[in-house]
Automatic annotation (TrEMBL):
Biased composition (Low complexity): 348-369
Ranges of biased composition (kind: Polar residues): 330-347
Organism of provenance: Pyronema omphalodes (strain CBS 100304)
Region (Disordered) location: 327-388
Name the record gives this protein: Uncharacterized protein
Record lineage: Eukaryota, Fungi, Dikarya, Ascomycota, Pezizomycotina
């Protein structure tokens, strides 16, 4: 092998590596592929500057250059910039580099033609009659049937087999082409991928069929959306749950893709968009229709799918159970009120006091013999919550359920009081039922008639009404204060007038008991909420501890990985040093052999001067004494 005389082993290795480095798309083939090619390219014995090196020595040196001298990075950027020829030191290597570059360019051009044809073929067959992506499972067999055994491209001169095209199509579909075809089919942008007339003809036929089926598909989407809305429209109270709650429920139920009637399919987003549009159509929209159907029990007419019908049946059962439960509660409360002749009214911060004779008022109605502002019959009060429970705010839906209930209780109590003691006020105002007037209007009429109603607790009735009507969030402490004020107001109404008359009609006292029961339930809820908050806090602390442990483990893994990488490089460096040591040992053994030859030559020729190296190292002497016999040296 002819090589220049003024190069080193490293320059020779770099030259060979440079001619083997080019890969596809002007990329470096990588050190893992370069080493096997280098082993095949170099001979077993390499001569550089009259020195001989074995193939193993060259491979060890190449490994060292790639890993520790930056040769891999240099080959990478030189391959991208086309500057590999600067490393070539031999004409043979330069010819190999030109051949590798030409082969790489041809392979790149062939890959470009193959990818373009495959993408065009897939785009031509990707659209179904319903305007949807056909799917990778159906696309591959369809393209395989369309393809001939070989496809020839006249412009470039390449020829591709059907197996090669189908293999590349499968690879591209698994690496993003399927998703691209899906969104291009929805956005009508498949035409941008089609580059061949035969593919375009099939795509045009599919688009024409899709255009004719768009109205049918939209109708199928609306039918599914209505059926889904009807399945989730019924609440526990037997009423329509409202469009604000309906859309999130449908979103949780829907999968990512939905199969519709007549073979159509659509995404979750299309169904939710159609459902939102129909719900926001005002009085004549889907929301009003669902409300009316929920009241009349006609939601079944909109159901078109079995899964939706099952969901509606479950909602109906829950509504029936809730109605039975409410009837049972109302019945038990009415029976308890009939069995209690003198219901106790719990009023906080009150004590018993002496009675005084009754005096007629301006209207002629006797006042109570009990001082209303400071005295009532004592009764047990619910246990007070701890401070942490009071500081915990209730969810707004719970507050909104409590305050309107208090408002209804107080309106019923005020109406019953006026109907019992001052019916002329109801006749003058035309209030025939408790719902005829709001709570603040009742309070304005009662305050002049009931002197005890001028206190701050009775005045908070207007606050209860204002907070309930305008949905104003309040703290848990303030909510309990409002409940206490409502209980006191019911107590005022229950102890007003002749006490015997109250016993005959204990409706106000029953309202007070209901208010106190409501307060007990609120306190229980707040205590449970506080316990849940403590549990959640403990769980958060545990999660934080586990995350810290996980982070420490990940850092330890990263440190161990770095140590393993250092170990690998050290082992490679040790291998390189051992190879150098072996090379040095070989040179030393060679020098010893030459010295033995010199000694033998001196003994046989009776030449005392052993330092005459020029005479002893002639080619003739080395040829004649290259293989001395061991038995000749044993005696010597």
């Amino acid at each position: 092998m002819n090589t220049p005389t003024a190069i080193s082993l490293d320059a020779y290795i770099r030259s060979v590596a440079a001619c083997l480095a080019p890969g596809g798309s002007k990329q470096f083939i990588g050190r893992q592929n370069l080493l096997p090619l280098f082993r095949l390219a170099v001979p077993d014995l390499i001569q550089v500057n009259n020195d001989y090196f074995t193939k193993d020595e060259a491979i060890v040196r190449l490994t060292y250059l790639l890993n520790f001298e930056g040769l891999a990075a240099e080959l990478d950027w030189r391959t991208k910039d086309g500057q590999l020829e600067e490393l070539i030191v031999d004409d043979t290597h330069r010819q190999k580099l030109a051949a590798m570059t030409a082969y790489s360019d041809a392979a790149n051009q062939r890959d470009t033609v193959l990818n373009t044809y495959v993408r065009s073929l897939a785009a031509g067959f990707a659209l179904t009659d319903h305007g949807q992506f056909i799917g990778r499972k159906k696309l591959i067999p369809l393209c395989s049937k369309f393809l001939p055994d070989y496809v020839t491209f006249e412009e470039s001169g390449f020829s591709l087999s059907r197996v090669e095209i189908v293999t590349q199509l499968t690879f591209l579909l698994d690496n993003g082409l399927a998703a691209e075809l899906d969104w291009r089919a929805r956005d009508w942008e498949l035409e941008e991928l089609i580059k061949y007339p035969s593919h375009r003809q099939y795509s045009i036929a599919a688009q024409e069929a899709t255009t004719a089926g768009i109205p049918l598909r939209n109708s199928a989407i609306e039918t599914y959306a209505k059926s889904l809305a009807a399945a989730f429209a019924l609440g526990v109270n037997g009423q329509f749950i409202g469009r604000r709650k309906l859309v999130p429920l449908c979103d949780k139920f829907l999968p990512d893709r939905v199969n519709l009637e007549n073979g159509y399919s659509c995404s979750k987003g299309e169904i939710l968009s159609s459902l939102t549009t129909m719900l926001n159509c005002g009085a004549g929209g889907l929301a009003a229709d669902l409300d009316a159907r929920a009241k009349d029990g006609r939601l079944d007419d909109l159901i078109k799918y079995p899964s939706h019908r099952q969901k509606l049946e479950v909602a109906k059962k829950l509504a029936v159970e809730e109605a039975i439960r409410r009837q049972t509660v109302d019945k038990n409360s009415s029976v308890a009120s009939e069995r209690t002749p003198t219901p106790s009214v719990a009023l906080s911060n009150t004590t018993a006091s002496s009675t005084t004779p009754s005096e007629p008022t301006k209207e002629g109605t006797p006042t109570s013999s009990v001082a209303l502002s400071n005295t009532t019959a004592p009764s047990p009060t619910p246990s007070e919550p701890n401070k942490s429970c009071l500081d915990t705010a209730l969810p707004f839906d719970i507050q909104h359920a409590i305050l309107p209930t208090l408002q209804c209780f107080l309106e019923e109590g005020c109406h019953a009081y006026l109907s019992k003691h001052h019916p002329q006020v109801l006749l003058a105002k035309g209030w025939s039922m408790p719902e005829s007037a709001e709570l603040n209007l009742y309070a304005q009429e009662i305050q002049p008639l009931l002197p005890a109603a001028t206190g701050p607790r009775f005045k908070s009735l207007s606050v209860i009404r204002h907070t309930a009507v305008h949905r104003i969030p309040v703290s848990s402490t303030r909510l309990l204060e409002l409940i206490d004020d409502a209980a006191h107001a019911c107590g005022y109404l229950a102890t007003s007038g002749a006490y015997s008359s109250v016993c005959g009609n204990p409706q106000q006292a029953v309202m007070a008991e209901k208010v106190l029961t409501l307060k007990e339930e609120v306190l229980k809820w707040m205590e449970k909420r506080a316990e849940d908050g403590q549990k959640q806090e403990k769980m958060k602390q545990k999660i934080t501890s586990l995350m810290d442990t996980k982070r420490n483990i990940e850092m330890e893994i990263a440190r161990l990985t770095a140590l393993m990488e250092d170990k690998r490089y050290i082992e490679m460096e040790i291998a390189g040093l051992e190879a150098q040591i072996a090379n040095n040992g070989e040179e030393e053994r060679k020098a010893i052999r030459n010295f033995k030859v010199d000694v033998k030559r001196a003994l046989l020729s009776d030449v005392p001067d052993l330092v005459d190296q020029k005479e002893l190292r002639t080619g003739v002497l080395q040829q004649s004494l290259r293989k001395p016999q061991e038995d000749e040296w044993e005696g010597w």
